[in-house]
Design a protein that fits this description.
Layout (H helix, E strand, L loop, with lengths): L5 H17 L5 H15 L8 H18 L6
Length: 74
């Protein structure tokens, strides 16, 4: 399991808030879950300076796919 650093925790909070605002029709818990899963998938696999950008892009992509697949909204 990847180690969670204070920076990664803060980044998770920030990206979650950004995506909750962008995907306001998706349940906040679902957005948080997608961001946490994205953090888990990226941690330790990419350079730390790229995490912020890639986390937002990956979670955004996954949320867009969920909506397209007809997942329930908030």
């Amino acid at each position: 399991m990847p180690t969670t650093t204070p920076r990664l925790t803060q980044l998770t909070i920030v990206v979650s808030a950004q995506l909750m605002a962008e995907f306001d029709d998706v349940d906040a818990d679902e957005v948080s879950r997608v961001v946490r899963e994205s953090v888990r998938d990226l941690s330790g696999r990419i350079a730390s300076e790229a995490v912020s950008e890639l986390l937002h892009r990956l979670a955004h992509h996954r949320l867009t796919r969920l909506i397209a697949a007809g997942r329930p909204h908030a």
